[in-house]
Structure formats: C-alpha cells, structure tokens
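Deviation from plan, reported transparently: zinc ion complex.
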Amino acid sequence: MGFSRRDFLAGAAALLADMPARSLEARISGLSGEASQSGPFGQDTELAAAKSIYLTVDDGPKASMGSILDAAGDAHMLTFFLIGEQMTKGSPGYDMALRALRRGHAIGNHSYSHPFLAKASANKARMEIKQTDDIIASLYNEAGRHNPKLFRFPYRSIGHEGMIRREFGLQIVGWDYDTSDYRSEGRNTGKSMGIIRGAQEHAIVLMHDYPGTATVIRQLGAYGIASQALGPGGAAQYGLNVRHPVPFC
Ligand SMILES: [Zn+2]
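Because the crystal trials were delayed, the predicted structure below was used instead.
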C-alpha cells in the first residue's frame, strides 16, 4: 500500500519551502518548557520532551473536542481530521474548528459524510472532498493561517487518490500507530497510552474525538511526550521514514 508514507514524503519538500522557521523554533522550545514543568520527577529531569509525536484526532468536531482542546492547552499541538457535515458554516462544529485553528492546531479534510470513498463514484467522491475543502479553506482564511491542505481517508478506504491530489492539491496522510480507541469509544485510555509510550519518535498516532482522548492528552507530559501538529512547522522537517505495522491489535 505505502500511500501514506510515500505521499507524505512527496509533499514534505513542498511544505518545507514555506515552513516558518521561527514559529517552529518557538513551538519546540515551548513544548520542552511545558513538559519539564509537568513531568513527574520535577523540573530538573532530563525526561522533559524526550519524545515528540504527531497526535491526530479523527471524526470531529464532536462535543468532546472542547475538552480535548482544553487538555492540549499550549503544551500539545494536534491535527484534527474533520467531517464536513459536522462543521457547516455557522454551526457549533465550525466554531469549534475555528477555535482549534486559533490555538495553533491543524485541521484536515476527512470527507463530508465519512463514506467508503473506494466504493464511491468519481462525482460523489469529488463532492465529498470539495464541500469539506471549501469549509476548511474558509476556516483557515478566517483564522488568518496558512492551510497545509491535509486529507485522510475515512475507514482507510483508499480511492480517487489522483483526483484528491491533482484537483484539490491535498496531501494524503496515514498513520504509524493506531490506538484502536474506537473499539472502546475512547474509554480504554490505558491501552492508548501504552501504544503512545511505545511509539517511535515523530510517529503519527491515530486517535478519535472522544472524551477519553482528553484524558490521554493530559497524561502525555508526565511521560515526557509532546505532540506537534502536522503541516508547515510540523512533520515536514522530519524524515518520517518509518512505517510501522499496527503494533498492538
Ligand atoms: Zn474517520
């Protein structure tokens, strides 16, 4: 398959070009500071920011997204792959996505109604991508931020990749580790935490928009783990040359 890794790398060079170096530097130092303060062994521990990951949160905006943003605070930057029909303009979901952007998180396209795109006609797929692409463009515009143009397939149901890249200029994003949090609707936070603790540096980790996700995020600092957002200033500067099988399930 290899779509996520190869495509991600292909887009990485382009992203590097407009990566704001200052904000990256600020973000890294900010993360280290936060982790050292919240670590379990006091401020002088070398555990601080021992590992940086890219935590991605799919299927929002949902009611739990507010608590996830609160848990992340300024310490962790997340990437949300959002469903268009849950954030139509003027809806509470739209406002929540805007709030995420204004706090520095990234948002990406996860289709309009979360279908199996591999089974969809070209026209259906095009509408699914476009409706959400328009909403996300509006959100980034309103937040005054650069849109990194990220896309993730619902159900990992891969199809119409050429169209997604060429017509919309989207970068297809997969993941390195799946917490499988959907199996317990996010309640098995211990399992998710175990997978995150075992994840390799700079790995992309898949979670979903559940209240339990906030619980997991609040524990990251204690383990010296910090999350960064994908996109400019995010994954692009790292090799991301690893592709793990789903490790624990
Ligand atoms: Zn999904």
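The first helix runs from residue 3 to 17. We consider this an acceptable substitute for the interim report.
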